[in-house]
Amino acid sequence: MKRITTTVTLAATLALGLAACGGNDSSGSSGSTGSSAMTDSMSSSMSSSDSMASSDSMSSSSPMGSSGAMTDARLGPGCASVPADGKGSFAGMAKDPVATAAGNNPLLSTLVTAVKKAGLVDTLNNSKNITVFAPSNAAFDKIPKADLDKVLADKTTLTHLLTHHVVPSRLAPAALAGTHPTLNSDSVKVTGTTPDFDVAGAKVLCGNVQTANATVYIVDTVLMPMK
């Protein structure tokens, strides 16, 4: 009971910090303000991701998932900030699993630090056909440092936060709108149409970015679970 109370308190603190820094409104959506209570244990969240783990590498052909064939078309104004070449470029990221690919992208260095602290690198890299809503460095910068440091120091809370950003299916832009389950055993609601999607109050900066095992949508706000 103490752990659950601490987790909820930290999540609430983080959400208040975002609001104080002028984060996006998210009325009617379930991510950046949260939509469900933190009732599932860490083992439940991780068992969801473990069931998808695979030691086989992904094919180099066009990725397929529950949403069908992906396209190469990327969307969002932030795509211009992605490096033109090297491992952090679109072509470079397509060759690596998602956690590794994110580690090569300078826009996602804070997210990568959080993933490492939570011990989720292997979970993400070994999962097949997932969608990741990846908060940019600027998204984390909206959170007061003291609040962010509290979450980064609490592995359980951090894991709930990060797995809320992962959908266990690969979503092309045509399939993005809707309510989708996450690896945190809750859901995230996406509204809008290409290219103007709203992910639970967050805007897509650069979307439909392909990695070897995931489709990534870089977003401008950290999504807030309530589990």
TrEMBL record:
Gene Ontology molecular functions: cell adhesion molecule binding
Keyword Magnesium attached: no
Skewed-composition ranges (Low complexity): 26-71
Database matches in InterPro entries: Adhesion/Biosynth-related (IPR050904), FAS1_dom_sf (IPR036378), FAS1_domain (IPR000782)
Disordered as annotated region, ranges: 23-78
UniProt keyword annotations, A-Z: Signal
Cellular component, GO annotation: extracellular matrix; extracellular space
One BP term from GO: cell adhesion
Domain FAS1 span(s) in chain numbering: 95-223
Taxonomic superkingdom: Bacteria
UniProt name for this protein: Putative surface protein with fasciclin (FAS1) repeats
The organism's taxonomic lineage, starting at the top: Bacteria, Bacillati, Actinomycetota, Actinomycetes, Micrococcales
